[in-house]
Specification:
Two copies of one chain form a homodimer.
Chain A (H helix, E strand, L loop, with lengths): L12 H8 L3 H9 L6 H14 L5 H8 L4 E6 L5 H16 L3 E6 L4 H13 L4 E4 L7 H9 L4 E4 L9 E4 L2 H14 L5 E4 L7 H5 L3 H7 L3 H15 L9 E2 L5 H12 L7 E4 L2 H14 L8 E5 L13 E4 L2 H16 L8 E3 L3 E3 L8
Helix pairs in contact in A: 1-2, 1-3, 2-3, 5-14, 8-11, 10-11, 12-13
The structure holds a DNA duplex (30 and 30 nucleotides).
DNA sequence: CACTTGGGTGAGAACGTTCTCAATCTGTGG
DNA sequence: CCACAGATTGAGAACGTTCTCACCCAAGTG
């Protein structure tokens, strides 16, 4: 392959055995803590190991036991605070039970995601936590499951996949947030989804079928919840108030400027993540408008800055760390042989009322 | 070990060879792309592999090649935006050259860090990027290096360790930031370090030796730079203006309240990371003070919210992603056999002047 | 004394690759 | 037709563990 075969200087169990004057089998037993070994042999082996600085080779161990004690984690972008916090939860759960974490960023890129699935399969990870880029990857994911590697989906769902899922009830959470804005007297509420261009027509004019299909995705479910609240309040959803122009802060800022330039501009905005909310705040500053007196704002995710800025931001807080930890635990249960029916765990969200949403 | 030996259902190269009617050696050559194989054999093997859904076992490959194509990454806390961004840089650099990343959080805990070093050694990672908790871990780190696993230190340094390091010039950056506050007419500048209790006396009354010794750590170097600026400006450093009361936002808020309650309170604050800056902002809000009219604020790290809040925060921006990417590249060079002298790479910082620091 | 029991031991297989080496096949030049 | 270089091939070793199995031995048991 890549040329030079690197010879490590590390002593093998055979060397340790020789040094201790026993067979490799006995040395293995003493070091691995299985089988039965006399006190004398054990002490000789452990002393020899200590002397030589012996470190077991977990690759060889994995070859034979069939367990790598490694969990693969596939997320779009570890820089995203949502995923870095969730990863922390996953990693802690894994560590607690003696597992390590192999991390791959997918960049929301399907090709990359598939390649990563292949690589992690070749590495024989014991299981995978995946925040899939797209439901379109169902087959690739199912292939991994069929190969005997259990998967737990995080945040997003993929219909028809044999996997546990962990997330929140996005539709209900979004509906609740929207209702709170309506209750403050806002009749014209904008939605900033962060999805990409091609999503927008679907979001703004979804047939019933469309909503159902989109309901599978996080953004889609939240958009559906937003619609639910409007419809129940007897307000006709206005497509031009739904913006899906990109995930970056600048995209959100541009979208905000566009929204506020409308003939009948929104008096409140619901942003589907905290980065988008920053874009809104930035745009408001630029326009000389103030939050919440001119425009109310509510965002998903309780970012660390949400409470510290002026005005403190009202948010829909997800239990992100717990989401990750639960995914990790669920996965480890599977790895360790659980064959319960697949569960779809929904953890509760919490609306934190601060000062960015005010009566109209 | 942990009980059940899991038998994977995945076909081995031997099965593929049988299916294709060739020897395992030939199948290996066709699949691995080494040696020479006739067109006919290759096609038969690839077809058989495709048919059986063959996936090479990279554990077996690593056993023989001595390369796991895995980089270990040891950081205090992946949730910290600094480390999650740096990790992104490391991961991208690794991916680009066909490596994967095994991640461990150390929680600033020396015991955990040592255990993690052991685990990663057993996993035979090809190299390690470490943001060490403490210089006290020198021996444990050196042992890993001696075992043949190269290390690159990120952000922090460990004197006397055979390793490359990547970071910024903390002393110069802190001095520059302090000078800018002094240039605005501030004579009473506080420093929020975020270090823990036992650090404070050293920071506030360092003998020359003290400063030198602390210069090895990130916080210490920045504190030294802060002092440098004061001394050069002919201002006597006041120990009570240096606060090291914890890393969390609440700690910073409490420290800020304490500072502002002093008889001769600071008119400007330098916060050593963005989370601490949030604490300051929160405390100011609570006290009914405004930034920058009542208190000026400058912080390290250009957090994503820094530009979006009011007032936009003036910051010392580190090239965090590049720091990580550079560490990754340096490490991969070592893994692939470079034996250049150890380098200590300092990437340039950039002061971004926004609106949180104003004339007194 | 013969017979069982069970702790302790070592030889060698197994895991799934890549590597080494010698043997065979192919085509070319004389 | 022969010699020879080079491509192609397969048997078997190697990597470092754990697992299987047969064996030895001391201590009871009848």
């Amino acid at each position: 392959m890549s040329g030079s075969v690197r010879r490590t200087t590390m002593p093998s169990i055979e060397i340790v055995a020789k040094e201790a004057g026993v067979s490799t089998a006995t040395a293995g037993r003493a070091l691995g803590g299985y089988g039965s070994v006399s006190r004398k042999s054990r002490e000789a082996v452990l002393a020899a190991a200590e002397r030589l600085g012996y470190r077991p080779n977990s690759l060889a161990r994995s070859m034979i036991t069939g367990l790598t004690h490694t969990l693969g984690v596939l997320v779009p972008d570890i820089e995203n605070p949502f995923f870095s916090r969730a990863l922390r939860g996953i990693a802690d759960a894994a560590h607690e039970r003696g597992w390590e974490v192999l991390l791959v960023n997918t960049d929301e890129d399907l090709t990359l995601e598939r390649k990563a699935l292949g690589v992690l399969t070749e590495r024989r990870v014991d299981g995978l936590v995946v925040a899939p880029t797209d439901v379109a990857d169902r087959d690739a994911l199912q292939a991994v499951v069929d190969a005997g590697i259990p998967i737990v989906l995080l945040d997003r769902r993929v219909p028809g996949l044999d996997a546990d899922t962990v997330g929140i009830d996005n539709r209900v959470a979004a509906k609740d947030a929207t209702e709170r804005l309506l209750a403050l007297g806002h009749r014209s509420v904008a939605l900033l989804t962060g999805g990409d261009e091609k999503l927008r027509p679907k979001l703004s004019r979804p047939g019933l079928r469309g909503v159902e299909r989109l309901g599978a995705t996080t953004v889609g479910a939240r958009a559906a919840g937003y619609r639910d609240a409007l419809v129940e309040a007897g307000i006709e959803p206005r497509p031009e108030l739904v913006s899906a122009e990109g995930f970056r802060r600048e995209d959100a800022a541009a979208a905000t400027r566009r929204l506020l330039a409308l003939p009948d501009p929104p008096t409140a905005i619901l942003a589907l993540d905290s980065l988008l909310a920053l874009g809104v705040l930035q745009a408001l500053r630029g326009l000389g408008l103030r939050c919440p007196v001119d425009v109310s704002l509510v965002a998903f995710d309780d970012a660390d800055w949400a409470e510290a800025i002026s005005p403190p931001l009202s948010v829909v807080a997800q239990p992100i760390y717990e989401l990750g930890a639960e995914a990790g635990r669920l996965l480890l249960d599977r790895v360790q042989g659980s064959d319960k029916r697949f569960t779809h765990r929904r953890l509760p969200t919490r609306f934190i009322e601060r000062e960015s949403a005010a009566p109209r």
